[in-house]
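## tool: complex_structure
## caller: assistant
## args:
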Amino acid sequence: MMEVFGDLRTLACAATLALLLVSMLLVLIRLWLGPSTADRVVALDLFGVLVVAMLVVLAILREETAALDVAIAYSLVAFLGTVALARFIRRHQGRPGTNLEETDDD
Amino acid sequence: MTDIFLSILLVTGGFFCLVAALGMLRLPDLLIRMHAATKAGTLGVGLLVLAAALYFA
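## result:
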């Protein structure tokens, strides 16, 4: 076990990556069966947060500071996407053809 | 010593991210799910970024 993972830092990074992977799977399940569009927007926001967390752990694991810059840029883009989706929901309220309220197939 | 502290921060941050995702899956309402995503998720990512700041310092 220890000769596969090397030192303690690599082992902790691997364990954290496994935890984040399980978290992303759970968020993807909520993204699949979220009853309304707002639920999916919140799930997608948390997914972006988890991607940023995974990039930070990858920066520690591979000793690459460039991954931290990627994490900053990705968090900015994810924030803009969340704001754009919130404005989309606001604009398309009550319009037919957009599934904005809860459906009963939960 | 720094390695031990770094590992504790990493695993705790990953645990709080898992708690956020579990709340996102299990909690019943939209606003309660938003509560889980913001508070636990921000705490988890904050701990991970603190670990990165400790490592690259």
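## assistant note: Chain B has a mean pLDDT of 92. Chain B has one domain: 2-55. Handing back to user.
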